[in-house]
Design a protein that fits this description.
With 312 residues, this protein is α+β, with helices and mostly antiparallel strands. Helix content is 48%, strand content 17%. The protein is built from ten helices and eight strands. The protein has a six-stranded antiparallel β-sheet. It has a two-stranded antiparallel sheet with strand order 4-5.
């Protein structure tokens, strides 16, 4: 998740840099017809994102681990598949934001979706290739499948509805594990700082498919256009990829059952909030990658049903 988040952050920073080049209102307004200069700028932006992200990852991440010959790695059983859902989320949002950049340049809706999906998939494929040459990991067919599914969600909605009625969102929080031993283990696995925990701690993360109720069910105009219903997936009690044991098996915590969590919760589609400000519209689009804090009902595979006043 950390590596994918670097790419999303790079995209956001590059968009912010682009906005600073001209007046907000004029620059943020999408073209009704193809603007060749803007299209070239978007091509250049995507190339810059790709190059910067790959160089940064190579030096900041992969350089710290030994290299090897290209090899495959089966990690499909790890982390209750939270990492796979994270790949879906990242590929979808990279594709979504790339497609929005092309729409801003006046590229047709159908073509911009295809371009965006291609950019998102290419970014993730390159990461997997780098993994394939890392002794620590390997090229994961499960990750590639998840990346394809994430980008495919964008394409599928375009082909079916010509609209993105379902958004892929994310939420997380700083988790306190109570026991000193568990907090130390979490520090080793997920990092000690707040940003590291937000990006890496699978036990604290939830991924959401958030559907716009009005669009999905063709409701009348008096129904709130911004109201979504979201279904979420999370997992807890994970202190190792496959099992809760560490220090070469000297510590085993079978008293902590690893389990999956399923949620249902209301959400907000910020892109449906009406405003004349182009800047606010852009901010609302950025906010749409994160689940709005709200009450939720949880069902988990320990056969428990719980109500939460606030999930984030």
């Amino acid at each position: 998740m950390f590596k994918q988040s670097i790419l999303v952050l790079s995209l956001l920073l590059l968009m912010k840099f682009s906005v600073a080049q001209s007046s907000f209102q004029k620059f943020l307004t999408s073209c009704d017809t193809l603007n060749k200069k803007r299209e070239l700028l978007v091509h250049a932006d995507c190339a810059a994102i790709f190059t910067t992200a790959m160089i940064s990852l190579n030096y900041a991440w992969y350089a710290n681990y030994p290299r090897s010959k290209f090899h495959f790695f089966d990690d499909n059983g790890e982390w209750q598949q939270m990492d796979k859902v994270g790949h879906c989320y990242t590929a979808f949002n990279e594709a979504y934001w790339s497609s929005n950049m092309y729409r801003w340049a006046g590229v047709s809706q159908r073509k911009s979706i295809m371009y965006g999906a291609g950019v998102g998939f290419a970014l993730q494929l390159t990461i997997e290739t780098l993994d394939g040459f890392s002794k620590e990991w390997g090229f994961s067919l499960g990750d590639i499948s998840a990346n394809t599914l994430g980008a495919g969600l964008l394409i599928g909605q375009e082909l079916m509805w010509r609209e993105q009625k379902i958004q892929f969102k994310f939420s997380t929080h700083k988790k306190n594990y109570g026991e000193l031993m568990l907090n130390e283990r979490a520090n080793d696995l997920y990092g000690k700082t707040l940003p590291e925990r937000f990006l890496k701690d699978y036990n604290a993360q939830t991924y959401w498919l958030s559907g716009n109720i009005s669009s999905l069910f063709h409701l009348q105009n008096n129904f709130p256009k911004w109201l979504n219903i979201a279904v979420g997936y999370g997992a807890d009690n994970m202190f190792g990829g496959y099992a809760n044991q560490w220090n070469n098996g000297l510590i085993v915590r079978n008293d902590l059952p690893r389990y999956r969590q399923f949620y249902i919760s209301p959400d907000v589609d910020f892109s449906k909030i009406k405003t004349k400000s182009k800047l606010l519209k852009s901010i609302f689009l950025f906010l749409n990658v994160v689940k709005f804090p709200a009450p939720a009902i949880e069902y988990n595979d320990l056969h428990q049903t719980k109500f939460h006043w606030l999930v984030f």
